[in-house]
Amino acid sequence: MNKETNVYKTSKHILTYLENTKKESSTKAILAQLRNSINKDLGENIESLAFIFSMIPEDKLGTGKNLNYYEQAILTTLQIYAIYQQGEDRSVIYRNEDFPYKSLGQSLRSLRNPEDKSANKSVDLRFNSLISSPNYRMLEYRLRQIIKLLKAKSEEQVDFFSLSNDLYAYLLGDVNPIRIKWARDYYWNITR
Q1: Contact 150/107 with Cβ under 8 angstroms?
Q2: What DSSP element (H or E) covers 15?
Q3: DSSP assignment letter at 93
């Protein structure tokens, strides 16, 4: 099965562009705008939206007064990337030719410490809160919080391309398959 959906390919295209130009002042400005767009009304978000709309294929652009699911998944992914990339010279994007896909659960597993069960309880609570989010807005909020924790405690790379795919599937209603995938990858092998 080919996991590279249109949203995967689009986010890969956009993030590769941002990654390759991250030292340029225009890209730093875009990343700052993306971070500043979090929790803002779309009308206060014009610069980051203009960038996103210019990078999305025409047939995926919405026509209504709200972002469509495709646009929303891309925006959320870029905001999360902008948070995680801030202040980093290294690449934070997961890329591996042999294992091209890595779920969010796999990246977050690096927060667990086999020697510190009490610290794991706190991380597990945050993770469980994330995957049991009752709606997309709460998922976005909890995702930003756990990504900030990952940034503070780890140098783990994140597969933002797959994340955008998962967020899009979540928005389309495939909530439980995403929860199960993330949980399986987060909790796998924790007792070994």
Answers
A1: yes
A2: helix 6-20
A3: B
